[in-house]
Amino acid sequence: MMINPVIRTFREKRTKDLRAPDVIGELFMLLMLVVIAVGAGTGSALVVALGTTAFVISAGGTLWSKLSLAEVAYGAQPSDSHAFVGDEIEIVMTLENRKPLPIPWVQLIEFLPTGLLPLSDEGVKRRAYAGGSEIVETTSLAGYERVRFRHKIKAHHRGHYSIGPTELRSGDLFGLFGTVRRDSRSLQGVTVYPRIVPLDGWELPAAKPMGDTLSRDTLLDDPSRPRSIRDYRPGDPMKRIDWKLSAKRDELTVRTYDQSVSNDVVVMMESRTVDYAWHGYKYDVLESAVTGAASIAVRCADLGYRVGLVANGVRPTRGVMAAITPGDGPHHVRTILEALAFVQPLSLTSLETLAVDRGAHAITNGSSLILVAGFLTEPVVAYLHHSQQVGHRVSIAWVGREDPPRVTGIRVVDAREIFKIDEDIEELLMSVVDEQMEMNARMNAPVREYDRV
Q1: Are residues 101 and 81 in contact, defined by beta-carbon separation less than 8 angstroms?
Q2: What pLDDT was estimated at residue 45?
Q3: Tell me: domain 1-193, CATH 3.20.20.70, correct?
Q4: Stronger pLDDT, 122 or 211, i.e. the higher one
């Protein structure tokens, strides 16, 4: 169901007048006053009449242009705030004149970022200097009239895209005097989830500790499956002692538990693609990693696993986290996809550091770890080996340009062909990532420039 557009009025305190004072118009009116004075001094009624007519037209046009955008409300609302790559979204743009004075003409210019592409070229201009497109609509408004424009756009690449800034242009009836007002604040944005590759037939190996399926191998005790109680034996962990029962029986008693197979999978994604930040980044490797992480997370959820995420490079913003505790359900999967939509080449925290700092809640005991990466460092490998030692099943999905590395004791799967990006959108991805980096630099702290390699 279409959401009613949120209307915002272009008032002086909310908008910025982009035009310098109409010096020519003011000089013209001053000149007409001189003409009228000269005509009156010489007794020429024709000169006085012409000067007066020109003065009235110019004064009326100037006043009309200043009042034309007063009490004009504008709103734009996408049909959906979230979409997948390839989805079509309708944007409804509403203009409303909230005063009795008619507006002979008003031009609306709405900016769309590169990741959102208009499906029709009618009324659309490409904005080469900043990427993206401009939707341009021109109409007239009677007193208290409201008009709506509808445009179909396509979600072309993952990310969060704000619609705007918006520009309104208007003026007098003859177009001699104009005014331009611009709202630099963006309207409601659209979050585009990463591309999902179907992984039919792909299964996650079992035999991991903790979960709902009983295991013959004694790996880790599952606290949710109490087995029995027995007397304390030297070497039993203190956390197994049932202190309340021990107090009643006047002797130390411990609880025993069954072992089971885990239903928790944590997808780890490495956003780094080169050794050093000043070397730039490999945009195809980054996008393949994001696609792989999203696709594996969705597939694991479909198979009934609880899925979590640890990914560096997630731009910090409200409601988006870089480490997500395993969970289930459509809402939880959308949370993971939204975090991956915000991944960018810049990463201030290494993956192993993020995993250690957030591991207490994001990486549950005995969960399976699947690393999706196109770049591998020794500290990350060391962390994966340590994870194996404490009971995690670890595997790597490789998406780098080079052949998969050999990692002792860890299964490495060549996933380059599965998650590779299409060649026909590589140029678009380059422009989108650059634009997002520029947007992030404006929204947050200064971000250093990164080059594609």
Answers
A1: no
A2: 83
A3: no
A4: 122
Contact (Cβ atoms closer than 8 angstroms) between residue 99 and residue 142? no
For residue 355, give both structure tokens: 């995993």
Position 317 scores a pLDDT of 67
Report d(CA 99, CA 86) in Å as an integer. 41
pLDDT at 248: 72
β-partners of residue 162 are: 189
pLDDT score of 121: 74
d(CA 425, CA 291): 14
Integer CA distances (angstroms), 83 to 16, 25, 124, 165, 334, in order? 32, 48, 22, 21, 10
* Residues whose CB is less than 8 angstroms from the CB of residue 426 and which lie 6 or more positions away in sequence, other chains included: 283, 284
CB count in 10 Å sphere of residue 262: 29
What whole-number distance in Å separates Cα of residue 164 and Cα of residue 417? 37
Q: What pTM was estimated for this model as a whole?
A: 0.72
SS in 3 state form for 194-251?
A: CCCCCCCCCCCCCCCEEEEEECCCCCCEEEEEEEEEEECCCCCCHHHECHHHHHHHCC
CB atoms within 10 A of CB 215: 19
Same fold across 1-193 and 264-443: no
Per-residue pLDDT for 318 more than 60?
no
The three state secondary structure string of 95-146 is EEECCCCCEEEEEEEEEECCCEEECCCCCEEECCCCCCEEEEEEEEECCCCE
Q: Please tell me the number of Cα atoms within 13 Å of 308 on its side-chain side.
A: 24
Tell me 21's DSSP state: P
Question: Percent of the chain scored above 70 by pLDDT?
Answer: 76
C-alpha to C-alpha distance for 396 and 292, rounded to whole angstroms: 11
Query: Two tokens at 287?
Result: 């996008």
Domain boundaries, the chain: 1-193, 209-261, 264-443
**What CATH class does 264-443 carry?**
alpha beta
Q: What is the CA radius of gyration of the chain?
A: 32
> Which among 389, 391, 353, 390 is positioned nearest to 268, based on CA atoms?
353
Render 58-93 in DSSP notation, one character per residue. HHHHHHHHHHHTTTEEEEEEES-SEEETT-EEEEEE
